[in-house]
């Protein structure tokens, strides 16, 4: 399969593009031109690499989950440890890249949206690092679920703006961030957190996140002398997943993305966009999204604030349509069981988002041969979710 997409119109097949107000077209064209120049500039690439290594803490380890493997009795399980990045998630990779680009473009303010808070914390962090003003929009429901991250953002000097519309989650925060950007585009850079939005955002975020897959390929070849048989990652908008998958697209490796099935796809309370979504436009991009019969956006649901989004990155929609990546889903209960299993066998508490990928990997490992291997992208650590876990588990193990 070709890895040359998106095309000149920002399309991945029928997905992607720029569906935005006229007032944003010039800003997107300026961004696209600046990005093209930056990624060809050796000084920019050198600055980005130095920040990723000296500040974010890369290279992240590839950890063999020996106890999990032994208990499950099938394929060897490895964890790509994005949870060990500075700020505790993969989000910092992309935030550093976009903040450096904002500085290069002469912007001194950034606006961002966040669901689980990981991207908001990453944005607030790089704003402090690079001397930028930072405003983060966040749904009131997510602020309740992620109170610790709200405080972290404020401690880092960012303004957290509550969003009370809709379901008060990520979709609504994104709407408000885009509205703010439209009115302040002259001096403000929109630091988007996933592979969603109008072109060139999906491509740009993928390029800043592909370091996950690039490192994994190199590390796994050193460990096993060949590529893994299966790679699994969770999918909300899909930034950690596309970062992990992209370097393996042309290789003979099975790729699986795991959406949030919430309380069960049949209940309607889920965020399984590829499984149940239809073609439509959300946040400036053509993709699959959850809609009711009238074409209005259907509110998603997931225990995980980071997966609670009604759309999917357009490149994921393309990869699903072409069959290169298989997408499935895990329920809240399955994710929590996987989270508990990893915590108690390996001493690693993952983010609830990542636990969706773990649930699928644990299921498949039992069905695979002991000579086969699985890599799971551990996209973030679970500290931020402890309040939610205490509510659901009653503080009991």
Give an account of the 3D structure.
This protein has helices at 22-38, 42-54, 66-72, 91-104, 118-130, 140-145, 147-155, 170-183, 201-209, 211-224, 239-245, 273-276, 314-322, 332-346, 352-367, 386-393; strands at 11-12, 15-16, 62-64, 76-81, 109-114, 133-139, 159-163, 188-190, 230-234, 254-262, 278-282, 285-289, 326-331, 373-378. It folds into two domains: 21-53 and 91-201, Rossmann fold (3-Layer(aba) Sandwich), CATH 3.40.50.1100; 57-88 and 210-394, Rossmann fold (3-Layer(aba) Sandwich). It contains 16 helices and 14 strands. The strands form four sheets. A six-stranded mixed β-sheet has the order 3-4-14-9-10-13, sandwiched between helices. α4 runs parallel beside α5 (118-130). By secondary structure, the protein is α/β, with parallel strands linked by helices. α11 (239-245) links the parallel β9 (230-234) and β10. The mean pLDDT is 95.
